[in-house]
Write a structure and sequence with these properties.
Blueprint (H helix, E strand, L loop, with lengths): L1 H16 L25 H10 L1 E7 L5 E11 L2 E5 L16 E4 L5 E4 L5 E7 L4 E6 L3 E6 L1 H10 L2 H4 L1 E6 L6 E11 L6 E5 L12 E7 L2 E6 L5 E6 L5 E3 L8 E3 L2
């Protein structure tokens, strides 16, 4: 009997070392699922993306908050890839939501969240830049640094200094005249600006005190830099506020 129990024990140990019957074996681990492919893009969209993909600078209206922001032509998530330092871009409030981008048939650029919804839509402005107006947030720009540098080199300070009349629309009487100076502003940021007597009080609410050139545009800054008006050059040589936001303002030589 003892010998029988010994043989039974040896058989049990062998069974356990063998892993038990086949039914007791663990099933093989499931193979990892491949990453979900990006969206199938129309060939025309792909071609447009190839042309637009480049390093940009994402900035608020007055340039006080900015960070490098690259648009890629590679499919990613709900659109095409974006590349940016999320810590550096945290100064742009909506940037944490951005996961991808897509060019729009209308000519705009749309920044998308992970679900494919539009976070910000940028329309083409001037000199390779795009602008977006986010309700309750403000105006933002995507600027191509290379094209902006070329535009700034083309626009010389001596072309801009001097007297300018401001009107609400083309052909309308001037509501203000100011002089852009080639001397530093009193606050130390940008160049000085002098306002003539009789200027429209509504226009002066933001307290214009300085001006500068950025991305081929003329920026007129208010006191403290809290408000900035950006003017883009027009084909007729005048300058128009951009974005207009339903309140046009034109700047032209007297």
């Amino acid at each position: 009997m003892a010998r029988h129990r010994h043989l039974l024990g040896l058989a049990l140990v062998g069974w356990m070392m063998a892993g038990g019957p086949a039914l007791a074996q663990q099933p093989p681990a499931a193979a990892p699922r491949p990453a979900a492919p990006g969206p199938k893009l129309d060939p025309a969209v792909r071609e447009t993306a190839q042309k637009l993909a480049a390093p940009f600078r994402l900035t608020n209206a007055d340039g006080s908050r900015a960070c490098p922001f690259a648009l890629k032509a590679d499919p990613s998530g709900p659109g095409l890839a974006v590349e940016f330092d999320r810590d550096a871009c945290a100064i742009i409030a909506f940037s944490p939501q951005v996961s991808a981008w897509l060019p729009d048939p209308s000519g705009s650029l749309r920044l998308l969240n992970a679900q494919g919804r539009t976070v910000a839509e940028f329309t083409e402005a001037t000199n390779g830049s795009y602008e977006a107006l986010r309700e309750g947030d403000g105006v933002y720009f995507l600027v191509n640094p290379a094209l902006a540098a070329e535009s700034e080199m083309e626009l010389k300070v001596e072309e801009v200094v001097g007297d300018w009349d401001l009107a609400r629309q083309s052909g309308a009487p001037a509501v203000c005249r100011w002089t852009l100076l080639d001397t530093p502003a009193s606050g130390g940021k940008g160049k000085g600006l002098v306002i003539a007597d009789g200027c429209d009080s509504g226009l002066l609410r933001f307290g214009p005190v300085a001006w500068d050139i950025e991305g081929g545009n003329i920026l007129v800054r208010g006191e403290g830099g809290a408000t900035t008006i950006r003017f883009a050059r027009q084909e007729d040589g005048a300058w128009a506020r951009t974005p207009e936001r339903g309140r046009p303002l034109l700047m032209s030589r007297p």
